[in-house]
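One thing: can you check what follows?
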Amino acid sequence: MIGHYIQKWPTSLKKIQKNKDALIFLIFLFISTAFWFFNALRDDYTTEISYPVRFVNLPENKVITEASNDKVIFRIRANGYAILRQFLGGTRVPMNYDVSQLRRTNRRGEEFSFILAREQQGLIRDQLLVGIELLSIEPDTIFIKLDQLVTKDFPIRMNGKIELEKQFLIAGNIIFNPDSVKVSGPKQILDTLTHVPTQPFNADRLRETTSRRVGLKPINQLQYNLQHTNVTIPVEPFSEQTMSVPLHITGLPDTLRIKTFPPEIRVTFRAGLSQFERIHFSDFIATVDGSVALRPDRPQRLRVRLEQTPENVYSVDYSPLFVEYLIERRR
């Protein structure tokens, strides 16, 4: 075994020698590259630096709804050492633009305010290190659009999908606590807003009343006075029931009356078990338009319409849809 390793020593020494030559080559390559880099830094260069924009001193009850730029670009010239120090050690404090000093103009048929970037050259030069020359600022002009800042109350609405187990239903209105939110933002956005949705969420295979804390969905440029609401989804088992509902005749003069065959309809519906005792046949209103029977081209049967149903009933159906009739004169 030892003899086997002794035989491999010459090959291993050759590999070490080759790796040593490669290492020496890389060291000299790095040194020569470093000398070239530092020598190149002595030359002058032109480059660009970008700074974020921040608007200050907004008028009271005003908000910015649109800005043509969110950053400014400085075109500068200096030797490589100065530029390198600027990039590595220079601070990137946002450029403050005083909105109270803005001017007004008409752009694309809308009124905008604008600020000249060159008016900030003194502040810009203070951000640059010694030896750096400021050549230009882009854009030269920044346009902004202001709108009135208002606050309104809006209802909260669920933004989600609810799936129930078989033979269960939502027993009433979904409850939010709190059920409204104060929203602050540009007037033009709030004028189109009708409600604030929750963050999307799913409730799967519910078989009992469920409550959960849900966040409100952010809307760009709007601020809320709260970020969450408690959502309660009332769930209970349901059953099906059928009731007889009398027909009401409308559209007839006092001298006439109509008898329908049958005089009532059968209404089938679903409701939560807790609701059945509260539901009465008088909560349903079924009508027939008698004026149709007075036309020259009167039909043989009259259409039945279910005009009213109680709250918290679902899957309502009725029959018959048409009834035969007989017109009589009142005595």
In short: The radius of gyration is 40 Å. Residues 149-236 form a domain with the RNA Polymerase Alpha Subunit; Chain A, domain 2 fold (CATH 2.170.120.40). Residues 1-6 have pLDDT under 50 and may be disordered. The first helix runs from residue 2 to 40.
